[in-house]
Amino acid sequence: MNPAETKPRPGNPTEAVAVKPSLKRSQPNDPMLLLRRYFLLALLLMVSTGCELSSSVDSVDQEQVVGGVNLTELFAEPQPSEIQAVLADWSSRNPVAQNVVVERQAQVNLSGQGTAQLYIVSHDVDGVKHFGGVVVPDGLAPGSAPVMVYAHGGDAGVSVDGEFLLLVGLFPDLATKFVFVIPSFRDEPLAFGGQSWQLEGPASPWDRDVDDALALVDVAAGLTPAADPSRIAVLGMSRGAGVGMLMAAREPAVKRVLAFFGPTDFFGPFAQEVATEILEGNPRQLPGLDYLSEQWVLPYQAGTVSLEQIRAELVRRSAVLFLDRIASLQIHHGTADAIVPVSQAQHMIDAMAAAGRGADTFSSFLYPGGQHNPFTLEGSLQRGSAYIASMLQGS
Asked: Assuming Cys at both sites, which of 3, 4, 35, 83 could form a disulfide with 166, CB separation 3.0 to 4.6 Å?
């Protein structure tokens, strides 16, 4: 461990701090440089839309009424009956892919680590047409490869060659040992090689995102005998980190979740602050927020959605409420994140500590000055790679 790093305290694996970023030169065609530019551009676009975290609402303990909506009532602590209702809904779903078609197949290079077959597939999930990517490294023995899901951030879709294949280059020890699944989400595009495939909607951030990702795992298992769908890992960024945690809460086969700066709790002060801005007619630009605003918050204000209905939507998106169902989780979050505040990570850290979860199933790393970008979280990619690789040793 780097000397500038703080080791977790015995019995409390949640307090680890990364070192100051080091300055390393990359070659112009270096995958790390290209991906760094991708994330920095995405970060600048997000920040430029005004996603700054103020503290107009600091606590839900005091009565808060905005635009006729009682926020104290809306964001009151979830009751066991509400959590059970969501679990019952999840158990009634069957996200199995139907009408699977291989739309395109190509050989791709795994950033110098080997070659793989890429399949762009279409299929139906609950009557909604979905597209996704499946990457199968060449030479894998039957049943030898766990499945790794890459759950992207934002709400602009995902590019297989412009994003995922560059990301694989940052995890060279994993590139040829997993079957990779790359879902896009409803009402978004999936892109590869100059082509784009548009998914049907409506969007359902964090909720039906999980159905779509699980269905694509099902597709991968049917495409290649190398895939072992009983061992699933999820690498999630931002929105995708929330999706990964919820996947683990719903599917026991998810054995590892590597979560970068994702939302964990839709009931805390940050969620109340965002709702306040919506009700005051000044919403910030955040992935998934348009959906929550148009489908739930504003209709609740207008009286066309009940308190029970909107609270159910908040519960089903709050992974912290289902931590007992998450087999293993590692969190990375920067303290200066201007998109998803570090308090979201802290809520999960505190809840895991209260539940007595140890370092064998939960670890977290908070990075002073780190932003909404993995390249500002010094050492996070190396830590994350080691965490996922431990799955290959059966630990």
From this structure: 35
Average pLDDT along the chain = 87
Phi, psi of 81 (to 5 degrees): -65, -35
Q: Tell me the one-letter amino acid at 317.
A: R
Give the containing element (helix H, strand E) for 120.
strand 115-125
At 394, the pLDDT band (50, 70, 90 cuts) reads low
User: Torsions phi, psi of 384, nearest 5?
Assistant: -65, -40
d(CA 356, CA 268): 21
Structural domain including 331 reads 98-266+317-393
Judge whether 7 lies within some domain: no
pTM for the whole thing?
0.86
Q: What is the CATH number of the domain that holds 231?
A: 3.40.50.1820
The total domain count for the chain is: 1
User: Whats the size of the chain, residue-wise?
Assistant: 395
- Please report the pLDDT score of residue 263 as a whole number: 97
d(CA 191, CA 98) in angstroms, rounded, equals 21
Q: Rounded to an integer, what distance in angstroms lies between the CA atom of residue 257 and that of residue 244?
A: 6
Instruction: Please check whether residue 236 is in contact with residue 148, taking contact to mean a CB–CB distance below 8 angstroms.
Output: no
Contact 238, 339 (CB under 8 A): yes
Helix axes 343-354, 269-279, angle to 10 degrees: 140
Q: Is 102 helix (H, G, I), strand (E, B) or coil?
A: strand
Choose among 148, 374, 339, 177: nearest CA to 257. Answer: 148
pLDDT tens column, 228-239: 999 999 999 999
Measuring CA to CA, how many Å separate 180 from each of 117, 134, 164, 189, 275? Answer: 10, 6, 10, 18, 36
Strand partners, 69: 66
